[in-house]
Specification:
Blueprint: H1 10-15, E1 59-62, H2 67-78, E2 91-95, H3 99-105, E3 117-120, H4 127-136, E4 149-152, E5 163-166, H5 171-186, E6 192-197, H6 201-204, H7 207-214, E7 218-221, H8 228-235, E8 241-245, H9 253-259, E9 264-268, H10 273-282, E10 298-303, H11 307-312, E11 325-328, H12 336-344, E12 348-349, E13 360-364, H13 372-382, E14 385-386, E15 388-389, E16 395-396, E17 431-434
Parallel strand pairs: 1-13, 2-3, 2-4, 4-5, 6-7, 6-8, 8-9, 10-11, 10-13, 12-14
Antiparallel strand pairs: 9-17, 15-16
Helix pairs in contact: 2-4, 3-5, 5-8
């Protein structure tokens, strides 16, 4: 029986809550049978019990200490590759020296390719990426002329796998080249484009999850200027919908004014990276946006100071429970806006939790990035809870307070739950649309 590297099975093991999955640099480690004649080991008087961080009842962690490991684990979580039907058609090998390349390459996970990302160095594949590529064994993507590997940026040639290359001289040009490549696979350009800052990664990170889910391209601008490759890509479309992600501190009003000459511009923003990610999670406009304003969703968490993780974890938003990327700004503290958001979408039930809906979160990063205690706090806020009937027929879940809110966005919509699950003060993000 063939044995696969345990480092690449952590995502699957976590999802199954198998606490005995160990890591090894070379191969899977198996526990040897116990010697029944060996003397018993005295029990400790005060044995320590740790919070499980591989998985809790509502969370699953990808415990990689670096983006390359997180990317490998995410790829194998989405494509276990145990049978031909669970393998991807193609895998994107992405130069990990620039977070912008990885962010733009997230859209390769979207339709029609469904290509997960592995991170590489210019001259060689990191060991974890090489092992993951071998395990994934891509069969070839018919929409990419049978390519098994899509090389983005400067990356090594992977043995005898059929490659196709996407290269350019700058991050903005690389993003435009990825957009052109996706257009060739679909036969028509996307009518929707996400435009983000090339200089402020924490505000740009949430775009990766949506690009992986939708296949919408990501293009870059500076704070005060629109690069030529971005202008060319937008001009190739007839008045596209441009969704500008980030506040004026990251992307100026002048850039927004320039973009409105190239399409229909809607800005989605929050004053901090944490709030910006929540605004994008809440936003919806027709068939664009997550619209997460009610219970029953998947979520992905990572640290705001790890921009490569956004691309690495992006496949988790494009399969399974699907869901937006939310950001944490410290290892052990839950930001207040995140807590409020999770309370807003916390599921509730009146009689039977089996008839309710559920939230689930992936955690991308090890315990040093996101502590086990913080994971446990997130887990608790995701849990479906019994509803307490209010005096006037309103219902709340424990820890929530019934509040009235006034939606501020003309382009955002707030879905209404059709189950007995309870959601309270849903506040859609503030957005502005420039005709």
């Amino acid at each position: 029986m063939s044995r696969r590297p345990a480092a690449l099975l952590l995502a699957v093991c976590a999802a199954l809550a198998l606490g005995a999955c160990g890591r090894s640099d070379d191969d899977t480690r198996f526990i040897e049978p116990a010697d029944v004649n060996a003397p018993e080991t005295p029990a400790k008087e005060n044995p320590s019990v740790e919070i499980p961080s591989a998985a809790t009842k509502n969370t699953t962690r990808l415990p990689g200490a670096d983006p390359a490991t997180i990317a490998a684990d995410a790829a194998l979580a989405v494509y276990p590759s145990a049978t031909p039907g669970t393998r991807p058609g193609a895998v994107a090998l992405v130069d990990q020296r620039d977070w912008r390349t990885a962010l733009a390459a997230s859209s390769l996970m979207g339709p029609p390719l469904g290509a997960p990302m592995l991170l590489t160095d210019p001259d060689e594949l990191p060991g974890v990426s090489a092992q993951a590529l071998k395990a994934l064994a891509p069969a070839g993507a018919k929409d990419a002329r049978g390519a098994q590997v899509i090389r983005v940026g400067t990356t090594p040639r992977p043995g005898n796998l059929r490659p196709t290359d996407i290269t350019a001289a700058s991050p903005a040009a690389t993003a435009a080249a990825i957009d052109s490549f996706l257009t060739s696979t679909r036969g028509t350009p996307s009518r929707r484009v996400v435009v983000v800052s090339a200089d402020d990664p924490a505000f740009s990170m949430p775009a990766a999850a949506w690009a992986a889910k939708s296949g919408d391209p990501i293009l870059f601008v500076g704070r005060t200027a629109v690069p030529g490759p971005t202008t060319t890509a937008l001009r190739s479309r007839n008045n596209p919908k441009i969704f500008l992600l980030g506040p004026t501190a990251a992307i100026s009003a002048q850039v927004e004014k320039t973009l409105k000459n190239l399409g229909d511009v809607t800005r989605i923003d929050g004053s901090t990276p944490v709030e910006n990610a929540i605004a994008f999670a809440r936003f919806s406009d027709d068939d664009f946006g997550w619209g997460v304003n009610d219970p029953g969703h998947g979520l992905v968490f990572t640290r705001s100071d790890t921009p490569l993780n956004a691309g690495a974890a992006a496949p988790l938003s494009a399969a399974g429970t699907y869901g937006p990327l939310l950001l944490l700004d410290a290892a052990g503290t839950l930001p207040a806006p995140v807590r409020e958001f999770l309370l807003d979408i916390q599921p509730g039930y009146e009689e039977d939790p089996v008839r309710g809906v559920y939230n689930h979160a992936w955690i991308a990063g090890d315990d040093a990035a996101v502590s086990a205690a913080l994971q446990a706090q997130i887990d608790d806020l995701l849990e479906i809870s019994p509803v307490q009937k209010g005096a006037q027929g309103t219902s709340t879940t424990p820890g929530q307070t019934q509040t009235a809110t006034t939606p501020q966005a003309t382009t955002a919509t707030t879905p209404t739950a059709t189950t007995t699950s309870t959601q309270l003060s849903t506040t859609p993000p503030t957005t502005t649309t420039t005709p």
